[in-house]
Amino acid sequence: MTATRGLEGIVAAESKISSIIDDTLTYVGYNIDDLADNASFEEVIYLLWHTRLPKADELAELKQQLAENAEIPQAIIDQFKAYPLNTVHPMAALRSAVSLLGVFDDEADEMTPEANYRKAIRLQAKISTIVTAFSRIRKGLEPVAPKPELGYAANFLYMLHGKDPQPIEIEAFNKALVLHADHELNASTFTARVCVATLSDVYSGITAAIGALKGPLHGGANEQVMKMLSEVGSIENVESYVQNKLDNKEKIMGFGHRVYRKGDPRAKHLRVMSEKLTALTGKPELYEMSVKIHDMVVGQKNLPANVDFFSASVYDSLGIEHDLFTPIFAVSRTSGWLAHILEQYANNRLIRPRAEYVGPGMQKYVPVDER
Ligand SMILES: CC(=O)SCCNC(=O)CCNC(=O)[C@H](O)C(C)(C)COP(=O)(O)OP(=O)(O)OC[C@H]1O[C@@H](n2cnc3c(N)ncnc32)[C@H](O)[C@@H]1OP(=O)(O)O
Ligand SMILES: O=C([O-])CC(=O)C(=O)O
């Protein structure tokens, strides 16, 4: 038995949800470029959960279900108020809140496909409210109730900022949600599938996935990209900052990918949005710095930008706090996690690989006072 480091190249599941072949990403056979330009996030949710696009009445029904289920238990709001709000990371708050949602769902352990689908709706509806409520509570503001007539992307921005978003903001945020929704067997999705393959419940699966997404090698990279842009500060500093990191063999966040080699097809959409939004908000330098960093990393390391790189300046331009970037990734990826969880339940087998043992050979137990 020989271990494959990081399970690279190991095919660990069959899936009908998304595929990455030759650097092309598709959701159920639809090219991500097509979906990014045309689809609403709600259509993508339906696509991932049903493996087909919804008809108009099905889409209307899903939107209504999401709107009707957006409210969160008061206990979560009370918990947030009791947290050490100056120090707690919103991903930790989100992880705990999703776990708590399970405590308050009397169907949590009901394992029929119908009950699991109802939980998927509830989770997708509530996760947006959780993230926005947390952001407001830590600023000493009351959470804003969602407006049922707004779509998912618009509602998120409305609940976050307490005012109606502009059409360009809705377009950018919807695109970001579409682009982040699913990505085959990435670390957090694999985590969710491993968890529920024990026949544990949906809330446990999503809580586990949030924990995996939080790390800076995965979803946490988008916040780190913004930290880097803030540290760089101006276009003049890019060269020395990046060169220093490259010379010291430090990783540049937002670059590289386990699966893509030539490039991440989602990055170009975020790059276009970043250019548009930074110009509109009067911060074009943020985009220009990003491009300069990009050109240096590609030029010297031949490492293309991943989805996290240009999303940072997009979210910053939407007035979003930097530590909410990864929770927003989770809001979108919840749709993919849920699709994979439902797919796992539908054809389940326990996921249990082996380890190559590299420790000492057989040893004889020695009583503690003789060691
Ligand atoms: C949504 C997502 O999760 S997308 C990924 C988000 N994560 C990041 O942006 C963090 C930065 N990137 C990385 O750490 C990596 O590229 C990962 C984690 C995404 C992929 O990791 P792996 O496939 O395991 O590649 P690994 O880390 O082994 O890197 C291979 C080589 O490229 C280098 N490399 C990879 N990414 C980077 C980077 N961002 N900056 C500098 N060098 C890098 C490594 O140092 C390594 O070099 P070496 O062979 O000389 O030691
Ligand atoms: O697929 C991966 O390894 C990382 C990921 O989630 C993504 O790129 O969206």
TrEMBL record:
Catalytic residue positions: H257, D308
Keywords carried by this UniProt record: Acyltransferase, Transferase, Tricarboxylic acid cycle
Catalytic activity: oxaloacetate + acetyl-CoA + H2O = citrate + CoA + H(+)
CC per GO annotation: cytosol
Pfam families linked to this entry: Citrate_synt
Transmembrane stretches, start-end: none
One GO BP annotation of this record: tricarboxylic acid cycle
Coiled coil: none
PROSITE patterns: CITRATE_SYNTHASE
Source superkingdom: Bacteria
Pathway connected to this protein: Carbohydrate metabolism; tricarboxylic acid cycle; isocitrate from oxaloacetate: step 1/2
GO molecular-function term, one example from the UniProt record: citrate synthase activity
Family (UniProt): Belongs to the citrate synthase family.
Protein name as annotated: Citrate synthase
Organism: Lysinibacillus composti
Record gene name: citZ
